[in-house]
Amino acid sequence: MTATQQGSDAQARPGGGDQPDPRRWKALAVCLVGGFMVLLDVSIVNVALPSIRDGLRASESELQWVVSGYALTFGLLLVPAGRVGDVRGRRTMFVAALALFSLASLACGLAPTSLTLVIARLAQGLAGGLLTPQISALIQQLFSGRERGTAFGLFGTVVGVSTAVGPLLGGALIALFGPDHGWRWVFFINLPIGLAAIPLACRLLPKPEPSQRRRQRHDYDPLGVVLLGAAIVALLLPLVQDRQWQGSAKWLLVPVAAAFLVVFVLWEIRYSRRGKEPLVDLVLFRLRSWSFGVAMITLFFAGFTPLFFVFTLYLQTGLGYSALQAGLAITPFAVGSAVAAAVGGRVVHRFGRSLVAGGLLLVVVGFGGAVLAVALVPENGTGWATIAPLLIGGLGAGLVISPNQALTLSQVPVERAGTAGGLLQVGQRIGAAVGIAAVGSVFFARVATTDGDFASAFDHGMLVATGFVVAALVVAVVDVLVDRRTHRREDVRPAGA
Fold first, then answer.
1. Which of 221, 253, 278 is the last residue of a domain?
2. Is 325 contained in some domain?
3. Which of these, 76, 109, 115, 139, is most buried using a 10 Å CB contact count?
4. What number is the average pLDDT over the span 341-360?
């Protein structure tokens, strides 16, 4: 264990002592409930879009904003929210985010018009962006050593479960309450979860340390917040609106995003030299575990996320599956991910990045198997034929996401855990947006040129997605090789050198 990790682990205990917080597992349960609610709203809404279209007479553009608006505002606040949580206290931010998310969910369910629903979804995304970095930061703060890996593994299980439950629960609610009002209950379901979690969070989550209270006098690098936010919006906007904004002019926002990012880095360097606390401590990128982990997970999300997009499109539009049937067909992947995440969190301290590389290899095998299954069983038996490859891919994903999070944040000081967790999430959101835009473009172009051959479109889209996963595997393998070479040099170094 490095000196940085030892210092981080010492801070993970109240007051920097040797005794861990006795309520840490109960506090983790509250964090996971909040994470489940936010992640559930990503997947549950997709199956409700046809009902929303009919109930509110929403246009295709408005439906797109119901989905992409949430993703856009979610990514916008991840890093600033992590920073505020580091300074003001993570419990305060967690409770405020839960309350805002619950209120926004109520507004979504009561929305009289499609425009009102879009605005409420933007507010939901902001709340999700406020809440998510607090979870990884609290895990860093409350746990150390093997327990930290286990805690991240449980968080990964929640990710898998929410992914699996979302489409099924959404389809069941619409079937129960009817197509006219069922979509409203997709949002109302968040209210009892939020109302139950808020008082528990106030009671169980740790209070800010005295050092945190003293840091409240520091400013929050407002210009850095604006510059990074502008870069994220300029980069994500053309990606999430890829199908709605026709033409190539939208891609001019990408160099604009790069320019904002360059100015942001220069500002952060200057801000640090003035003796102030920047929004992002650029020293983080000197940590190999951090840099490799962020690069790998960004590439992985570019390949992993489009699976749900193109597979459900193929099943529902190409084969005529219902929303509930499509949700059931994708369930093996989510179940495998949930199970493997719990196991991966327990053993990541033994295998390190090799475990992540093995998980990526399983995902590549699972994706290839899904393409083969669709080619061999292109009609109504597809849902059954893809069970095994999707389960294999899900097992691999579970060995990637949570273990990588534990490894990437392992050397990050606890006082920077919120900001670091937010940056890690931003990488995931950017990767997901890039992947969906790239794979979606190939998918729809293939549909248009083959007179509606959705099986062929699925194959071509999945080849692009697999390419991203293979790139992530290359990064992970390089990290493993560099790590082994580093340890070999340390082993042969003379004592006292």
1. 278
2. yes
3. 139
4. 90
